[in-house]
Amino acid sequence: MSRTSLSRFLIEQTRARQTPAELRFLIEVVARACKMISHQVAKGALGGVLGSMGTENVQGEVQKKLDILSNEILLEANEWGGHLAAMASEEMEKAYQIPGKYPKGSYLLVFDPLDGSSNIDVNVSVGTIFSVLRCPDKNAAGGDLSEDAFLQPGTEQAAAGYAIYGPQTMLVLTLGDGVYGFTLDSEMGSFVLTHENMRIPETTAEFAINMSNMRHWEAPVKGYVDQMLAGETGELKKNYNMRWIASMVADVHRILTRGGVFMYPRDAREPEKPGKLRLLYEANPMSFIVEQAGGASTNGYQRILEVQPQSLHERIAVFLGSKEEVKRITQYHIDAQK
Ligand code: AHG
Ligand code: MN
Ligand code: MN
To answer: Could you tell me what percent of the chain has a pLDDT over 70?
Structure first.
């Protein structure tokens, strides 16, 4: 049986849809960086990569060694190829400018280099999330690119994807025409298409939320989870199952595979912050993927992809996955406003 490599898939996709070769190159470079990260993650204690750096990122979160290492791998892989105008990362306060010695391209790359950091030291799946935007100011080639260039709604993404470093390393990708999953053949060193046109079932009986925050939730979320917990005899008339991996990539990957609803609502712990997850690095790329797979994604009130970002590290509430449940929780939020 002939196998479709990521390279072949990208060439065929770009030929059929007239996607620029520059975008194909960009995805290949990101995939190569993810292979390198996968290799580092897999070394674990043997590679001395576990544990913390003793530093904090702009969000005030402790940085793990692998957060920094993964960030560096992505920067180094992507800075010289001439396909990017700038990069932005969860782990860097400011946008990363392409060094003057390299040519600049027409895309912007934003990423969460290592998602699920709290799981690194306990050998549970982690991942990398990325989003590709077009640079609105092509004339910025001379000077530094302003951060405003990144503040585009998720509907403008040219591509998005994630790598999951689990029992298998996989790359899941959308170029705006469906979602495709590739499994890393570590002997050959290449990603092979194994999951064609991934689709999220519209209905589900599985939810994902960190229940320990229940006392901080707003009324619509509390009410909805209570209904699910009530099971067959409750209003929703079915028994629900719950999973929470605490790596968004792993929770979203499960939902892409067998359905489910993922929730990280805003809560009363830090009232000035609308949720924990980051709009540009996590919510937008995942929402693009989920919608392309037939699912839905909102912040409780509107499509996440239509939210106009105000700042690079902005946070947002996230409800995504099987359409029926995302619709339900969104309706509960809207009703509560009346
Ligand atoms: P990161 O490791 O990039 O900071 O992201 C962690 C995120 C996300 O992956 C996960 O869904 C969530 O944080 C888990 O949060 P809790 O620890 O509050 O459950
Ligand atoms: Mn993350
Ligand atoms: Mn991270």
So the answer is: 98
Domains of the chain and CATH, by start = 6-195 (3.30.540.10), 206-337 (3.40.190.80)
Contacts within 8 Å (CB) and 24+ apart, 72-75: 73/33, 73/36, 73/37, 73/40, 73/113, 74/30, 74/33, 74/37, 74/109, 74/111, 74/113, 74/128, 74/130
In short, whether 119's Cβ falls inside 6 Å of ligand 1 is: no
Residue whose CA is at the smallest distance from ligand 1 atom 14: 246
Mean pLDDT value of segment 208-229: 97
pTM above 0.90, yes or no: yes
Number of the ligand 1 atom closest to the C-alpha atom of 247: 9
From the CB of 229, is ligand 1 less than 6 Å away? Answer: no
CA 245 / ligand 1 centre spacing (Å): 9
**Model confidence at 228, in pLDDT bands (50, 70, 90)?**
very high
